[in-house]
Amino acid sequence: MKYLVDIDGTICSLTDGKYEEAIPFVNRIKYFNDLYDKGHTIIYWTARGGNSGKDWSTLTKQQFFDWNVKYSELLFNKPSY
To answer: Which own/partner contact pairs does 32-36 have at CB distance under 8 Å and 24+ positions apart?
Structure first.
């Protein structure tokens, strides 16, 4: 199965655009990591930078590494709402 997952408010705290202050939700990350380990496709799709145009990819990839987030793909430019 394929899962499309938001980042902020789903696997980490909402930070009102201060993404470097995000706190990981360990249990939620474990949930999606377990799905990944079972062979599911996990795609994270975020609106980070969608309004500001700032590239948050380096920070986000580092957070994923630090938080041990397993994923198939990381996408940006999700419409903000």
So the answer is: 32/3, 32/5, 32/69, 32/70, 32/71, 33/68, 33/69, 33/70, 35/1, 35/3, 36/70, 36/71, 36/72
Compute φ and ψ for 76, nearest 5 degrees: -115, -175
pLDDT the model gives residue 15: 95
Task: Give the CA angle between residues 42, 57, 28 to the nearest 5°.
Answer: 40
**Tokens coding 38:** 């079972």
pTM of the model: 0.92
Length of the chain: 81
